[in-house]
Amino acid sequence: MTQVISLTEAPKNGPLYLKAALGAVPLPLVSGRKSTLPDRAIQLDGLKVDPDHLAAYCRATGLRFSDSLPLTYPFVLTMPLVMQLLVQRDFPFIAVGAVHAENLIERTRDISVSEPLDSRAHIENLREHPKGLLVDAITEISVGRELVWRQVTTFLHQQRTSLSGGPKPEPKPEAAAPPPLRTWRVDQKTITQYAAASGDHNPIHTSALGAKAFGFPKAIAHGMWSCAHILGTIEGRVPGKATYAVKFGKPILLPSTVNVYADQVAGGWDLAVLNPKKGYPHLTATLR
Q1: Can you tell me whether residue 217 is helix, strand or coil?
Q2: How far apart are alpha carbons 42 and 139 in whole angstroms?
Q3: Are the C-beta atoms of 38 and 91 separated by less than 8 Å?
């Protein structure tokens, strides 16, 4: 039976990240991490949006501040619930250094700033990948009995698995990206502002030394910053009922200049962020 932990307020990000860091330290007399996911969920009802927090998020992402929540904003509201699950000692891997690989958001309608939100999070589908372990964090937001927002966040923890060491696919030929709709200059100041607004202080984003400790040559931009920021290119044309599917490619190293694309197609938009010199994707997305 699922263990449901009911909260009366959202967990604070500072203690969560401290617990995540401590979780990377082996403790004597404490058994190792489990190989299966704990059957656990976290529930937080009656959450009210802080307009000042929303305004800070909009400044950090470049999205419009209005009476309706941006499509991606509930991610930062529910991330503390997900982190509360990830930092437990019986979770299969440590939270620090985990990479956001994919994200799927399904929204049934616009959500008003004034609506009280009931949130629930759990984690499922632990599986191997050639680069490590993948899990899906499922978060849902309801207003009363109406499910208004649902997200599947796929995290990758880099480690060896039974799928590691196999033949690697042929590298795709590199070529300069086509002319973009616009370009972004992404630097540490921008990402530090997003870290403060979102509460995501993972050291791979905020510290060059922290990033190197997890195998990155430099600090990298948050995937969910680029996921949100690119929606600014189609501001005012995101429908209330929408499905937003994002795949993250190679990380954006700080600082970088990247190419941005937004193509209108039947039923919505195809979006992308590409490396301008080599053409590989940092992000590809569909909004329908």
Answers
A1: coil
A2: 10
A3: yes
Helix (H) or strand (E) holding 272: strand 268-274
Place of tokens 């938009």: 269
Domain residue ranges of the chain, discontinuous segments joined by +: 3-24+38-160+183-287
pLDDT of residue 29: 46
- Nearest Cα neighbor of 107 from 268, 244, 264 is 244
Tens of pLDDT, residues 1-16? 899 999 999 888 777 7
Buried b (16+ CB within 10 A) or exposed e, 61-74: bbbeeeebbbbbbb
Structure confidence at residue 22 as a pLDDT band (50, 70, 90): low
Summarised one tens digit per residue, pLDDT across range 26-53 is: 555 455 667 889 999 999 999 999 999 9
Token pair 């929303």: residue: 54
Residue type, 21: A
Q: Does domain 3-24+38-160+183-287 have CATH number 3.10.129.10?
A: yes
Q: Three-state DSSP class for 6? A: strand
Q: Which of 28-37, 186-195, 205-214, 252-261 has the lowest mean pLDDT?
A: 28-37
- Is the pTM value of this prediction over 0.85? yes
Q: How far apart are the first and last CA of the chain?
A: 36
